[in-house]
Amino acid sequence: MKLGVLLPTFRDGAKDALARATEAAAAGIDGVFAYDHLWPMGSPQRPSLAPFALLSVIARRHSDLVVGPLVARVSLVDTEHLVRQFQTLHTLAPGRVIGALGTGDKLSAPENEAYGLPALSADERRELLGDAARALSDTMPIWIGAGSKATNSLAREVGATINLWDWTAPRVASMSATGPVCWAGPAKNDLFATLSALSDADATWAVFAPDVSILQLHEWRSGH
Hints:
By secondary structure, this protein is α/β, with parallel strands linked by helices. Helix content is 42%, strand content 17%. The longest helix has 15 residues, at 122-136.
């Protein structure tokens, strides 16, 4: 199971995120990821760094790190532009980009509304998701954020790994029986037990929120 860390992107500048990426690279962590939000959920007064610009810098600085958004939401930009952002990142880091995509949901809807972006239906967003995934699938691995049965079925149809946010290990194991899955979420009190349980559940990746101890991730990896 590969290990990843979400970067601290809800900041006024990139200093903390760049330092975290350097720490992850030095510890042998497999990849770093960035949220794709216009602000932290529920806090529109706070800043959020644009993921693709940040990841481009990191990809050039650290040639061993896999990079990707977690997840890039369709409908924030048009599909052609979204695909080009991924392709540009791939040009900077060939073979090291995860095409992680999601439809968004009611929790992220206020971001679209605040900027006058269209309020698309779930079916319309799912159609855009499929278009983006198919356009990128020959270039990079595709992850699709778990959602409704229709979204999960689409992920299997296009050969994507389903990204499971904060699912329990038994639920991860159940979903992994249908195809590849990866896990993302906050660090738990017993990080080692969480990692071992996710590995046993056949998660391909475990990607942790920014406050995880990279040292502990390194220690667990060293023992496995």
